């Protein structure tokens, strides 16, 4: 699943367009590296999203086959800095 769609499905952002904009601005990281919106998300990866002063870090527990998935089962929150 694409990163921008995963961020929306896991409810880390409200809209896919917002997720794409965050990626384009270099504020989304997969395993410590800047990630593009089209990057493929795999279970076990760590995703960090910077929202201004705040950084949200999560670990991917599962990648859904479709958009209809329970967000609580997709990610494990690691920390929320800032």
Automatic annotation (TrEMBL):
Keyword RNA-binding listed: yes
Keyword line: Protein biosynthesis, RNA-binding, rRNA-binding, tRNA-binding
Source species, domain of life: Bacteria
InterPro entries: RqcP, S4_RNA-bd, S4_RNA-bd_sf
Domain RNA-binding S4: 1-65
CDD domains: S4
Key word Coiled coil present: no
Any one biological process term the GO annotation gives: translation
Any GO molecular function: tRNA binding
Name listed for the protein in its UniProt record: RNA-binding S4 domain-containing protein
């Amino acid at each position: 699943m694409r990163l921008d769609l995963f961020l929306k499905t896991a409810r880390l952002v409200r809209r896919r367009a917002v997720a794409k904009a965050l990626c384009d601005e270099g504020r989304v990281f997969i395993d410590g590296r800047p990630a593009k919106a089209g990057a493929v998300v795999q279970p076990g990866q760590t995703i960090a999203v910077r929202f201004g002063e705040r950084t949200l870090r999560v670990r991917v527990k599962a990648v859904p086959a479709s958009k209809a998935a329970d967000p609580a089962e997709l990610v494990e929150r690691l920390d929320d800095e800032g």
